[in-house]
Amino acid sequence: MLVDTHCHLADPAYDADRGEVVARARAAGVGHVIVVGESPETADRALRLAAGNPRLSATAGVHPHVASSWTAETGTWLAQRLADPRVVAAGEMGLDYHYDHSPRAVQRDVFDRQLDAAAGAGKPAVIHARDADEDVASALRNHAAACGVLHSFSSGLPLLRSALALGWYVSFSGMVTFRSWSLDDAIREAPLDRLLVETDAPFLAPVPHRGRRNEPAWVAAVARRIADVRGLPLDEVIAATGANAARLFGPRLAPLEDRP
Length: 260
What we know:
With 260 residues, this protein is an alpha/beta fold. It contains nine helices and eight strands. The protein has one domain (2-258): TIM Barrel. Strands 1-2-3-4-5-6-7-8 form an eight-stranded parallel beta sheet. β5, α5 (133-142) and β6 form a beta-alpha-beta unit. α3 (72-82) packs parallel to α4 (104-121).
């Protein structure tokens, strides 16, 4: 089944029609959506959404933009959320040296703490990497017990290769449909059993929806573009990426009829 592995469905952009957005995703064949929590506030909203719908799961973490907000209480909060079965991953976490909304040393420290928390909870980590490839790769190497996914991949091939060598997954978003996209080699190089698809909605709407609010129903456009680049049937890419998502994020992502 199609799985949107990274969607900010708790964002206020959906407050007026969130139910309709979820219904359109289901009608488009999207069997599951992972609702990303990039701060305690958004993660708790994501968890409330997942509590009311078995086709939704949540993540919990602290984005590098708000890394400066980390406190000891944040660490306690994260450990508690990662113990909840509806929270299938830690993150969105990582490093962003493009905007530098938090000092880089603080970003690295909070990233390390969250990788440790993910490994301790036995849950994958969802990684944001922007203009920080070398330090992200170093952090992944230094946390060998952690695993997860490089989300909305647009980094260099060295980071991709480092992560794949450590057993990590890679996810592609609507950026793969943009005219400016130049990383088809990354799509080809990633093993089929390590590929995921996502929207990163409400951002990065794929062609032909550019300029509009993105939504999980449009993750099919990402899968279609990956199928074209790899020369595979679309159904094969959908089946592989869905199976990969269930393997990485756990049994909550299995089709409802297959759950114990």
